[in-house]
Description:
Layout: E1 10-16, E2 20-27, E3 34-37, H1 41-54, E4 57-64, H2 71-89, E5 98-105, E6 108-116, E7 121-125, E8 132-133, E9 136-137, H3 140-152, E10 154-162, H4 166-184
Parallel strand pairs: 3-4, 7-10
Antiparallel strand pairs: 1-2, 2-4, 5-6, 6-10, 8-9
Helix pairs in contact: 1-4, 2-3
Amino acid sequence: MKDGGIFMKHGFIERNTLETQITAEVMLDNKGEYDIDTGIGFFDHMLTALSKHSGISMKIKCKGDLNVDGHHSVEDTGIALGQALSMALGNKSGIARYGSAYIPMDEALSFCSLDISNRPFLVFMGEFTNQMIGEYDACLTEEFFRAFAFNAGITLHLNMLYGKNDHHKCEALFKAVAHALKAAVTPTDSGQTLSTKGSL
């Protein structure tokens, strides 16, 4: 902890609805250890990359109504993960706040720029060629990041710049978010809030 618990480093959320039962735990420990099971294999793969490459340890468990489709599971996981990260960051003082990253994966290139600002917003650019990646509905990528950004208090700009393979495009995007997050949550020497207003 830092500054009397203002920067908490740990967040845990339990979210139960008629559609999903989710627990999400994050630790800002720069280890990137993970234990993830949402019932959607490719989504687990993306969240694993998000944890490993950001250095943010994550434990995520989701039981959702996959007999309907993956929408509720993916969106609600974004909600819970965003809330857990927000809890871990406390009032968001003492961090670099901003992060950007270009990430290539074979023929694909994706970009992320973000601000942990308490002003949630999402700009999502790019399209998938196919509806599904394994058992994951590709259009839910935007839904996940919207839920994550709005519940974490992040201004999030995403762009899948180019690529042919949807797996590569999506994975490059998640890894770009991860590396941008890693930069943004880096503690500053001063421990102060990086804002001329004095708070976010």
